[in-house]
């Protein structure tokens, strides 16, 4: 069996790849947001309260993409 | 002469009121969206549409609210020596659990015949966007002092 046949034998829904992609971006984004917050709090612990709020807003926007991306499972057949 | 050990100040971060306010407003707006979405869903897709709109809005508001709620929960451990570890453990652990739960729910609800997938999707999107708008408005209107968590040394007393 040559390689082309093996590749052609793969089956499933290509949209599944999209759900995976929808999770990668926000995961990286949340990682950056949280990492930078740790840096900020380490530099200025007295700003922890403000930085937490900014971190929360950042996480909310980043994860919104993931939610909508994964929820497309409902409309993409 | 040894000075009495200073009283430990309350180290709860000042973000709590903002997050609490955002959660309350988020719940309120979600209620409005559930009503509007439920009516629209009922008009366009009957009872299935009504149920789908309610489920979708509930999913959106719960999953968007978990971040703020987990920060509020984590801040209860502010006096702990390992607060930073506990904080990020709870917040990021909550995030991970939330996504696993969301994917499981999506898979389970996908084939439910008592739901209308399109209405469900649209109400999730509406709920997510409304939640973001509420978050931004609450933060923009909040007044947090700079250097709010600083601990000032106690003033000397004459005795």
From TrEMBL, chain A:
It is found in: Cell membrane. The keyword Hydrolase applies. Residues 16-75 form the V-ATPase proteolipid subunit C-like domain. The lineage of its organism: Bacteria, Bacillati, Actinomycetota, Actinomycetes, Micrococcales. This is ATP synthase subunit c. Key component of the F(0) channel; it plays a direct role in translocation across the membrane. A homomeric c-ring of between 10-14 subunits forms the central stalk rotor element with the F(1) delta and epsilon subunits. It is a multi-pass membrane protein. Belongs to the ATPase C chain family. The chain crosses the membrane at residues 12-34, 54-76. GO terms for cellular component: plasma membrane; proton-transporting ATP synthase complex; proton-transporting two-sector ATPase complex, proton-transporting domain. GO terms for molecular function: hydrolase activity; lipid binding; proton-transporting ATP synthase activity, rotational mechanism. Pfam families: ATP-synt_C. It comes from the Bacteria. Keywords: ATP synthesis, Cell membrane, CF(0), Hydrogen ion transport, Hydrolase, Ion transport, Lipid-binding, Membrane, Transmembrane, Transmembrane helix, Transport. The record marks 63 as: Reversibly protonated during proton transport.
From TrEMBL, chain B:
Keywords: Membrane, Transmembrane, Transmembrane helix. The chain crosses the membrane at residues 25-45, 51-74, 86-108, 120-140. This is Uncharacterized protein. It comes from Agromyces tardus.
